[in-house]
Structures are given as C-alpha cells and as structure tokens.
Amino acid sequence: AQTVTQSQPEMSVQEAETVTLSCTYDTSESDYYLFWYKQPPSRQMILVIRQEAYKQQNATENRFSVNFQKAAKSFSLKISDSQLGDAAMYFCAYGTGTASKLTFGTGTRLQVTL
Amino acid sequence: ETGVTQSPTHLIKTRGQQVTLRCSSQSGHNTVSWYQQALGQGPQFIFQYYREEENGRGNFPPRFSGLQFPNYSSELNVNALELDDSALYLCASSFRKQVGETQYFGPGTRLLVL
Hints:
Order of helices and strands of chain A: EEEEEEEEEEEE
Helix content of chain B: under 10%
Structural class of chain A: mainly beta
Largest interface: A-B, 27 and 32 residues
Helix content of chain A: under 10%
Distance between the termini of chain B: 38 Å
Number of strands of chain A: 12
Oligomer: heterodimer
C-alpha cells in the first residue's frame, strides 16, 4: 500500500523568508502524481501545486515550488517570500492512475510570524 | 465558475442514528470523491462516484454508502453512527481523464456524534 509521510508536525517561518516542508512517499508504481494542498482554518482544502512523476522538471506556481527526487521518493515544498496568509496546514498527497483516490500525509502546520 | 459546495456545514447526531451529507460538484466536473478527516489527521479516502456508480472504495464499512445524481451532485450516507465517525467529511470533484485528475475540494461538513 502506498504511504505518505510528513515528518514535520509544525514549522515556523518569518514573513518574507523561505521555508521548506518535507514529504516522502512509498510506492512501487512508476507513474503517479503528487500534490500539495493547503488547509487554512476555514477547512477548505486548496490545491497549491501538482507534479507528474514522469516529468523531471520541478513544478512551480508563483512563490511555491517543489523539489521532486523520484529515486529518493521525496517531494518537498518550498515557499518563498512567506506571507501571513500562507499560515495553514499543508498536506502532501499521492495518486496513481487517474489520481482519483488520493493518499494523504498527516500534515504540517505552518506558522508565519512577523 | 462555481466551486464545490457542501451541506450542511455542521451536524450533531447521536450514536445509532443515520446521516446524509450533500455535495455539489464544480461546474464541468463529473466525478465526486468523499474523504473523512479525523481531528489532527490527513483525509482518508472513502469512495468515489463516476457516472452514478461507485468507482473505487477505501477501507470503510458498508454502512458508509453514497449516491451520485445525473447532475453529478452526490450524497454520502452513514448508517448506525458510531462515536468514531465524528470527523470532517470532505467532498472533492474532478473531471474524469485517463490519467492525472486534479481534485478540487469543498469546505467540508463537520459531523459530531454524541
């Protein structure tokens, strides 16, 4: 069974600084999809970024980028120029095939301080 | 474009009762997935509906059941509620593709079982 591990229950970053959230996963599949979702106190899960395993290039979305290391089964999220609105729970998720069934990690709570 | 909506936002039930949660998918989407998120945990996949049929199920007992309607909206039904069913229930919609769908989540329904 696929598993997703987020080893950092909590992280803190100062406004305007950079922070990296870690995620590792375990799979025997060669083709799969990885996602980072953000869940603010409003509870709604918001897609931050996605990565296709067959793509070597790391995905980027504005201030958000990933470091995808397929051999190491690692998928970290880097947030640059952190903003107060980035404070939330961040979940790493894995999907294969249609990616219609996602396996989530336990999340990392990110605090952003002034 | 209308996002994923869920109703009700909060619900309190007693053990043994039955509950129905509702989800309207995002405009243009034809697939709905349901997840259970216990406090402090990542979401767990319950099941998915595509073309009004269950299309994949996680490790949940048969008292968790669902429906999808022709307009792609969906219901999650839970019978014989147990205390451990207390959780945030998330609905996600997507457009069925051969591979690599992206799921978009609703704000969730918080269920408390007393």
